[in-house]
Design brief:
89 residues; four-stranded mixed beta sheet; two-stranded antiparallel sheet; 3 helices; 35% helix; globular
């Protein structure tokens, strides 16, 4: 199934490695360095026209890892993912 990240962007749920709150995780230098590295590699996709709240790390065997920046909160994205999981049961 797919998870909607905002602005008509969806990712396969099986490709999601993690959903992270930007305010909490970017306190760490290693996280900031990782995001900067992905930005240089052109692997960051911004799907937010507003203040970003979350980044979603994905890994696809064909495309490798990507980072999606979303305006949707991490808790909302997790609820959406859980709802999709419950529907598939």
């Amino acid at each position: 199934m797919y998870l909607h990240l905002g602005q008509e962007t969806v990712v396969m749920q099986d490709d999601i490695v993690g959903i992270f709150d930007l305010d909490n995780t970017t306190v760490s230098k290693s996280t900031r360095d990782y995001l900067a590295k992905k930005e240089k590699e052109k692997k960051v996709i911004n799907v937010s026209f507003e203040l970003p709240k979350t980044f979603v790390l994905t890994n696809n065997k064909n495309e490798g890892s990507k980072v999606y920046i979303s305006q949707i909160s991490s808790s909302t994205l997790l609820k959406r993912a859980d709802n999709i999981y419950e529907i598939n049961k």
